[in-house]
Amino acid sequence: MCGVNDWTSLADLEPSIALGPLDGRYRGAVAGLVDHLSEPALNRMRLHVEVEWFIHLCASDAVPGARPLTDEEIDLLRAIPAGFGAAGIAEHADIERITVHDVKAVEYYIKRRIEGTSLDPLRELVHFACTSEDINNLSYALMIKGAVEDVWLPAASALVAQVADMGREAKAIPMLSRTHGQTATPTTLGKEFAVLAHRLGRQVRRVEAQEHLGKINGATGTFGAHTAAAPGTDWIEVSRTFVEGLGLTWNPLTTQIESHDWQAELYADVARFGRILHNLATDVWTYVSLGYFAQATTKGSIGSSAMPHKINPIRFENAEANLEISAALFDTLGATLVTSRLQRDLTDSSSQRNIGVAFGHSLLAIDNVRRGLGTLSVNEAALAADLDASWEVLAEPIQSAMRAAAVAGVEGMEDPYERLKELTRGHSIDAEAIRTFVGGLGLPAETSARLAALTPGTYVGLAEKLVDDYLA
């Protein structure tokens, strides 16, 4: 009998097989993040930061002996990150195998490309006065900013718009509420989607407003090497204008590392968005189980391998799992990155390599929820049937009307809550029972008629108006 050890080694197959699902099964849903948060994207951004620092030093006359660069020289430098592809990735890896230092390999990679050009005499401006973290913190800030603005926010915003549209479309469809899982004051289906859209939208706006901080101030944040090399230069101003010129917020006070507090703030907001989305996924899953939604299928799709009748709400279940993984990673990143022993330790280096994984699981969940919502159609008959079987929910408006009547001086309105509790709790009641009770209360004629006309399906308060007025 062939044993496991005799099987073909999957690790030796070409092309290589992904260990994780984001780079394997779910690659299509998260591919947009590769340009921003992969290891090659990190090295490409490091090249960009190094090149722009070189250009900035020359333009600001910061280092004696440096000169303004020509347009051709600037183009040559900026072509280095722009052309960083498969060959460049392999070459950088070859250099790193010798240096055993990824940022130093970036420095040598650039120097190779300016060797023998008019920039060669200025070659020591590459990585001038920099510690690795000067390059890394700016690279990560730019990568994360790009990933959020170009990939995550468009997906999240599209989801919010989709949920908001569902809220508007279903704003007038009455639905039985189920506070604590029990029958409760009716709402509308659309109002409940509007609540979720409103909550998700607030988090999106927080993410949109997030600052992305950066620093370039040397090995312990003192500009020590800078002032030793060029004491006459206003290095604080050179640093500020460089960081802000990259489109980031300048952080003037750091140790060797930029403190990463802004990252923790961002990850908390993205994780909170995910937790609200998790709430949406579980609620919709429950509505599907109650029959409030029918799910469309595609030809040939399988719901259950054993039960042919089933259409499982797998998109929402997949989203739940990925949101839980994403939130756990974002929580860990936020807790880890704000702490660094004394002036520097390297825990952040390993942690930050998982930023793409955290965003990947979030993006995958968003994709699944959007696709899941797209399969739903409202089963208004099921919603109406639930309401028609729940006349006891009218105990609330009746006792509230009795309270108002008592305040207005109407006789016989004593103990309204207790009387409605006796009528409804533990009893099955119908429209006739409600109307008989209302008719015997002695309420003013207008109030009595209004309550007698009320049904569970019309007892939705201002739900529709709330959607119209406040779902922005």
UniProtKB/TrEMBL annotation:
Pfam families according to UniProt: ASL_C, Lyase_1
This protein's name: Adenylosuccinate lyase
Function: Catalyzes two reactions in de novo purine nucleotide biosynthesis. Catalyzes the breakdown of 5-aminoimidazole- (N-succinylocarboxamide) ribotide (SAICAR or 2-[5-amino-1-(5-phospho-beta-D-ribosyl)imidazole-4-carboxamido]succinate) to 5-aminoimidazole-4-carboxamide ribotide (AICAR or 5-amino-1-(5-phospho-beta-D-ribosyl)imidazole-4-carboxamide) and fumarate, and of adenylosuccinate (ADS or N(6)-(1,2-dicarboxyethyl)-AMP) to adenosine monophosphate (AMP) and fumarate.
Pathway noted in the entry: Purine metabolism; AMP biosynthesis via de novo pathway; AMP from IMP: step 2/2; Purine metabolism; IMP biosynthesis via de novo pathway; 5-amino-1-(5-phospho-D-ribosyl)imidazole-4-carboxamide from 5-amino-1-(5-phospho-D-ribosyl)imidazole-4-carboxylate: step 2/2
Keywords associated with the record: Lyase, Purine biosynthesis
GO molecular function per UniProt: N6-(1,2-dicarboxyethyl)AMP AMP-lyase (fumarate-forming) activity
Biological process according to GO: IMP biosynthetic process
Ranges of residues in domain Fumarate lyase N-terminal: 24-319
InterPro entries registered for this protein in UniProt: Fumarase/histidase_N (IPR024083), Fumarate_lyase_CS (IPR020557), Fumarate_lyase_fam (IPR000362), Fumarate_lyase_N (IPR022761), L-Aspartase-like (IPR008948), PurB_bact (IPR047136), PurB_C (IPR013539)
Limits of the Adenylosuccinate lyase PurB C-terminal domain: 340-460
Lineage top rank: taxon: Bacteria
